[in-house]
Amino acid sequence: MDAxxxxxxxxxxxxxVIDNADHLTHLDAAIGDADHGINLRRGFQAAxxxxxxxxxxxxxxxxxxxxRALISKxxxxxxxxxxxxxxxxxxxxxxxxDVSAVQLGAALQAALEGIQQLGAAAExxxxxxxxxxxxxxxxxxxxxxxxxxxxxxxxxxxxxxxxLHTTINLQARKGRASYLGARTIGHEDPGAASTxxxxxxxxxxxxxxxx
Amino acid sequence: MKKLINEPDRVLEDxxxxxxxxxPSLSVxxxxxxxxxxxxxxxxxxxxxxxxxxxxxxLHGGFVGYGMLDxxxxxxxxxxxxxxxxxxxxxxxxxxxxxxxIVKNYTGDVLxxxxxxxxxxxxxxxxxxxxxxxxxxxxxxxxxxGRRGTGATVFLEKIVGAAVExxxxxxxxxxxxxEVNERSRSFGVALSACTVPxxxxxxxxLGEDEIELGVGxxxxxxxxxxxxxxxxxxxxxxxxxxxADMPLxxxxxxxxxxxxxxxxxxxxxxxxxVAQWLxxxxxxxxxxxxxNYITSLEMAGASITVCRLTPQxxxxxxxxxxxxxxxxxx
Lengths: 211, 330
Fold this sequence. Notes:
The structure holds two protein chains of two kinds.
Chain A: H1 3-19, H2 21-31, H3 36-54, H4 59-73, H5 78-93, H6 101-119, H7 129-144, H8 149-167, H9 190-210
Helix pairs in contact in A: 1-3, 1-4, 1-9, 2-3, 2-9, 3-4, 4-5, 5-6, 6-7, 7-8, 7-9, 8-9
Chain B: H1 11-22, E1 26-29, E2 34-37, E3 47-54, E4 71-77, H2 83-93, E5 99-104, H3 107-122, E6 127-132, H4 152-165, H5 170-182, E7 184-190, E8 210-213, E9 224-227, H6 231-245, E10 251-258, H7 264-280, E11 284-291, E12 301-308, H8 311-318, E13 321-322, E14 327-328
Parallel strand pairs in B: 3-4, 3-5, 5-6, 10-11
Antiparallel strand pairs in B: 1-2, 2-4, 7-8, 7-12, 8-9, 10-12, 13-14
């Protein structure tokens, strides 16, 4: 996978975030402060613009620019969290102009660890980690058992979706939703929902790149 | 949505242009989104920087000026500022004595200020941060993001602002800020929801006869929903909650703060009830503030903040202040 695949991923993620911005904001209105879609749309629009401007040559640079853009433009908690995730993934990929499926797995793992460290969130806290952690796990399992890249990214997106569904029955312990306590039960977590979109974008970008 | 705006996505920008036009005492950087005093940093003085989502005006921009803040970083409405703007503001007010960040305890604010402080440290600046968490409506436990920062922010900005104006160093200012936070508690009640302009719809629904007890300044729900009762009963509920958490005694500073959609006459009705309750519990109101200081757009409702004063805190509260939203003694 080269830089163009990673750019296609981010451009697709931006499209999905923009198309679903109202839905994300609606989810956030139920248990948070009704700005997740608005913020993430601003962040991903900035990321796409900065990629266009910077024209990065390696996958690592693509993700570093995305991380920087999300931190600079998103606001809220999701900006630093997703931004840190992309920056940690960028570091894991290094300077290679072409990265393997195994390297991408390590990058996803680094993103998860970065997000967990900054947000101090564990699985079960009703956050983006509840979608990302099972996704990283599913990706690794497919690669470890000899599956190919599109199969692994699709499995990741599906596992994230299942993770998102589990957040419905969870009580939030982190972020603004935690103030609601038991009243968060019955609602999807907006951060987990946006993580699903980003991973769905990764799945379609890798499918297109290998077809 | 019925609002006096031009475009929903440009509200902050347009408002900052207005702040610049209205207040020659302020310098507004519209592109980088921060407000400083017009005269530039005071040599040798610790810089005070605060910030948070917009929609709480006059907090924080209205408190930039002599005796209070050196800079404010307004984020989008109800959204924390981003590290770049906090860093830019920090650099703009650094006068060699270090900069104190005043951060309200919300996950986004804490993360973005933390990233800005790391970037500032990389550039060789001395930065300390104080997190305000005075809202008793949220239990401080491992099951939540911790107590929210609300009304005590105004007290802290005023009192620490006075201290650094007189030459308090960074360490002393941070200790004083934590003391004010420790000695202050708040509780808010919403009578109606508010609408974020970019969102177009109210953040939550309240029935005609319903109130939200322990509401946050972004309309986050609090302890419970209740039926609308008298101002006297609401003041009692708020003060009982505060008193249970931090027993009140001696001299106190009290703020009855409007959330944006409640007229001043009602705030005075609440203040009368607060005064009666405190007198009945042997507590003396020696300083007070009534008005809209930390709002939640057009939300109807009020918050009550109480600070247990010491002679030093009273004296710093009385010190001269000259900002768009708070001014006396000068």
